[in-house]
Amino acid sequence: MKNVIFSVLIMMIFFSCKKETAMPAPHEKDAYNVLLLSKSGDTTTLPTKWARIQTTGLDSANDGKLRIVLLGYDGNGGYTMEVTNLQNGEVHLDWGWQGVNITSITPVSNMLHANETKTFFLQGEAKIGRIKVKAFGDCGNSSELIINITALILPVVYLDYTVTYDDDLGKTFISFAVEDPTQVNWIVIQKVINKVWKQVAMIPGDDETKKYNIKL
């Protein structure tokens, strides 16, 4: 990926939401694709969003009696959590959340045997917030452990995506907005050339720009 980025740096177009920059070569009416590369490694392809690849240890918390690890986020409000009972007795888990509005937890049993590790899948919202869990048992209760769902964990969210072609000007106009501009690292524009997707522009993200208007 680094080699690809380096090879296309000369193609960068610096612009803001108040300016439009034309490409040096003409672009005819054709199929275009826009990819948003986030600072956390997610790729959002307009209009189809790609889910995050499951990874290990996006966030974790531990108090000596209970350990929780956010193993992965699926790009659509699904959180995979690994919970380990660090005590020598059975415990019951009490879940809580803030902002992410968890609607289901699988498996439904919240019991963990002594020193048992269990993986839970929580379905909720793709929002910044918190997932909380506390263990209760005869050997003692854990503190309330918190997993913070931050913008770095969530994928780039885009809005108002349009691609139009102006016959009079012979130009293609690509417009879209992003919900959180601080998460957009690069904008890659692709076009079908000889039946193959080819990169025609690569633009650095702007932490303050929500609305992008690109003219090719």
Question: Could you please describe the fold and organization of this structure?
Answer:
The protein has one helix spanning 2-7, and strands at 32-38, 43-46, 59-62, 66-73, 78-85, 91-98, 104-106, 111-112, 117-123, 129-137, 145-149, 158-166, 171-178, 184-193, 196-204, 211-215. It has a five-stranded antiparallel β-sheet with strand order 3-4-5-9-7, with no helix packed on it. A four-stranded antiparallel β-sheet has the order 2-1-14-15, with no helix packed on it. The protein has a four-stranded antiparallel β-sheet with strand order 8-6-10-11, with no helix packed on it. The chain has two domains: 7-50 and 155-215, no CATH class; 59-149, Immunoglobulin-like (Sandwich). The chain is 3% helix and 49% strand. It is mostly beta strands and 216 residues long.
Helix content: under 10%
Shape designation: elongated
Tally of structural domains: 2
First-residue to last-residue Cα separation: 24 Å
Tally of individual helices: 1
> SSE string, helix = H, strand = E?
HEEEEEEEEEEEEEEEE
The chain-level structural class is mainly beta
Compact summary:
This protein is an all-beta fold. The protein contains one helix and 16 strands.
Key traits:
disordered N terminus; 216 residues; mainly beta; 1 helix; Immunoglobulin-like
Blueprint of the fold:
Blueprint: H1 2-7, E1 32-38, E2 43-46, E3 59-62, E4 66-73, E5 78-85, E6 91-98, E7 104-106, E8 111-112, E9 117-123, E10 129-137, E11 145-149, E12 158-166, E13 171-178, E14 184-193, E15 196-204, E16 211-215
Antiparallel strand pairs: 1-2, 1-14, 3-4, 4-5, 5-9, 6-8, 6-10, 7-9, 10-11, 12-13, 13-16, 14-15
